[in-house]
Amino acid sequence: MAETLIVFIDDNKSRQNHVAKLISQGSYAKVIVACKEGFPLPDFLDNAYVIKFNPSMTTTELSDYFYQKINIKDFEVHLNIICGEGREHTAMISALVRRGIGIRFAVVTNEGVKEL
Questions:
Q1: Reduced to 3 DSSP states, what percent helix, strand and coil does the chain have, rounded to the nearest 5?
Q2: How confident is the model at residue 1, as a pLDDT?
């Protein structure tokens, strides 16, 4: 299993619950959370590394911003995009690929955390 989990968070409670279960049921050394500036983080994200971004950034600007902020040594990460918007996901995937980091999608199922 990848050591780092990257998630987006938004104000949808059921999606937040999915992210909370993913974090609690997974065995991650590091959790990185991307959210819009001004978003109040839920308590379950207290120990996460938070990347707050300006929602008015273009997709290209956002990709460059994520590229600068995600400075990890991992060869691959788990990524969950249940929260957030498509352009934010596109920017994150672009930033990870440009860094040469492999992506494995992670979700919570009835059987626990699964890689897709």
A1: 35, 30, 35
A2: 64
Contact 23, 8 (CB under 8 A): no
> What DSSP designation does 42 have?
P
> CA–CA separation, 50 vs 8, rounded Å?
10
* Domain 4-115 top-level CATH class: alpha beta
- Domain segments of the chain as ranges: 4-115
Q: What is the DSSP letter of 9?
A: -
pLDDT band at 17 (very low <50, low <70, confident <90, very high): very high
- 78 sits in which H/E element: strand 76-80
54-71 pLDDT, tens digit each: 999 999 999 999 999 998
CB 39 within 8 A of CB 52: yes
Specify burial of residue 107 (Cβ count, 10 A radius: 0-12, 13-18, 19+): middle
Instruction: List, edge to edge, every strand of the sheet that includes 49-53.
Output: 49-53, 30-36, 4-8, 76-80, 102-109, 112-115
